[in-house]
């Protein structure tokens, strides 16, 4: 067919630029230390996103933090954030006791959510969220275990998936803080510190923990009353892989996280610069410095986590690859509960898991 005479074949088609995709509008619930960091992160370092609505128990805090997010407005309640027409996705950084109801509301509203840990305060409540998400028909809950987005963690995960280390035999973890607040107890050690290594088991080994034992010994004179510091957790997975978690949170030096995976073909360690034997005192080490707390140590991981979440929301997948899920949050809660019980038990405590809803459940059932 000949082209119409008024449109010669040589005439190019319109080259008007396509409209730019709209930024994902994020509502942030809870803007204390962690939430304020996320508002700043979303506003300054995350592509394709902007903070549109902010809420906090203290309205004046919300109003102050919202100043870092141009155009953001402040509302009084989490429910208003979740229901807002100008919120496409929700980031929850409120205290853990509120997470269950807030995540349930996000699921009911059909809005993807990134929730800081814990998913809920106990396994039963966490499983309620797993079930609610399953019944909604789509995975939309991401959980803020940011270490999964750390460069070293990613490299070790890649090595495992490529088979470079062979069969995993031992996973040795170390978690050290300079200090903790007064009132920090053995229970806090489990739920605030060990929980990250517990999720690392799910991330690296992709199999359930079947038992956990707590071992305590001589405690440092710097530990708050009621805290056994250091503490050792010994965990066993379904395949028989052993995991050790050394927790020492009153070092008076700084924040360090190290992980060693010993496999049948070799071993790999992350979290310590190659070739350095370190001596620590007041945050110093030969050849470098030790971060004061977790924020500088994992700043890049937090940035990567939030950027991956925004990308997943934008492309419709909703949950980023390698992100912790609602199921991971339930598993962490169940293992933490067993670890808490092991604080006063003689020997190891078995971990009890309900079956995962859906076709994935068969491989998680024991």
How would you describe the overall organization of this protein?
- This protein has eleven helices and 16 strands.
- It is of the alpha/beta class.
- The protein has a seven-stranded mixed β-sheet, sandwiched between helices. Strands 12-11-7-10-9-8-16 form a seven-stranded mixed β-sheet, with helices on one face. The protein has a two-stranded antiparallel sheet with strand order 13-14.
- Helix 4 (99-109) packs parallel to helix 5 (123-136).
- Mean pLDDT is 89; it is low at 1-20, 274-281 and 362-366.
Summarize the structure.
With 366 residues, the protein is an alpha/beta fold. It is 34% helix and 21% strand.
Please describe the structure with a list of short key phrases separated by commas or semicolons.
366 residues, alpha/beta, seven-stranded mixed sheet, 11 helices, 16 strands, globular, disordered C terminus
Task: Annotate the secondary structure layout.
Layout: E1 24-29, H1 33-44, E2 49-55, H2 59-66, E3 73-75, H3 78-83, E4 89-92, H4 99-109, E5 113-115, H5 123-136, E6 141-143, H6 151-161, E7 168-176, H7 186-205, E8 209-216, E9 231-237, E10 242-248, E11 256-263, E12 266-270, E13 284-285, E14 288-289, H8 294-297, H9 299-315, E15 324-325, H10 326-342, E16 349-350, H11 361-364
Parallel strand pairs: 1-2, 1-4, 2-3, 4-5, 5-6, 7-10
Antiparallel strand pairs: 6-15, 7-11, 8-9, 8-16, 9-10, 11-12, 13-14
- Most strands sheet: 7 strands, mixed
What assembly state would you assign to the polypeptide chains in this entry? single chain
Query: What percent strand?
Result: 15-25%
Mean pLDDT: 89
How would you sum up the global shape?
globular
């Amino acid at each position: 067919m000949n082209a119409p005479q008024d449109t010669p074949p040589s005439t190019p088609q319109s080259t008007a630029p396509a409209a730019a995709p709209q930024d994902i509008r994020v509502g942030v619930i809870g803007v204390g230390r962690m939430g304020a960091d996320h508002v700043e992160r979303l506003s300054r370092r995350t592509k394709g996103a902007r903070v549109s609505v902010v809420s906090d128990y203290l309205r004046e805090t919300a109003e102050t933090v919202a100043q870092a997010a141009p155009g953001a407005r402040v509302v009084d309640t989490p429910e208003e954030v979740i229901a807002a027409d100008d919120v496409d996705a929700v980031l929850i950084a409120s205290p853990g006791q509120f997470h269950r109801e807030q995540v349930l509301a996000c699921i009911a509203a059909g809005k993807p959510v990134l929730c800081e840990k814990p998913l809920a305060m106990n396994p039963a409540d966490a499983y309620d969220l797993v079930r609610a998400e399953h019944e909604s028909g789509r995975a939309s809950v991401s959980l803020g275990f940011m270490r999964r987005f750390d460069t070293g963690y990613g490299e070790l995960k890649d090595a495992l998936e490529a088979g470079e280390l062979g069969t995993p035999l031992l996973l040795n973890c170390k978690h050290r803080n300079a200090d903790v607040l007064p009132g920090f107890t053995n229970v806090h050690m489990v739920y605030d510190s060990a929980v990250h290594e517990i999720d690392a088991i799910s991330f690296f080994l992709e199999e359930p923990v079947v038992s956990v034992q707590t071992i305590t010994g001589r405690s440092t004179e710097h530990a708050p009353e009621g805290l056994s510091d250091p503490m050792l957790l010994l965990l066993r997975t379904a395949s028989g892989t052993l995991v050790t978690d050394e927790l020492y949170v009153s070092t008076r030096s700084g924040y360090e996280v190290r992980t060693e995976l010993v496999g049948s073909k070799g071993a790999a360690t992350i979290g310590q610069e190659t070739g350095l034997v370190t001596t620590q005192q007041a945050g110093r080490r030969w050849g470098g410095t030790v971060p004061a707390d977790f924020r500088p140590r994992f700043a890049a991981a937090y940035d990567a986590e939030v950027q991956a979440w925004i990308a997943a929301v934008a492309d419709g997948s909703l949950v980023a690859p390698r992100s912790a899920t609602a199921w991971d949050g339930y598993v962490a809660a169940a293992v933490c509960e067993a670890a808490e019980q092991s604080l006063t038990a003689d020997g190891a405590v078995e971990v009890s898991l309900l079956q995962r809803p859906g076709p994935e459940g068969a491989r998680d059932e024991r």
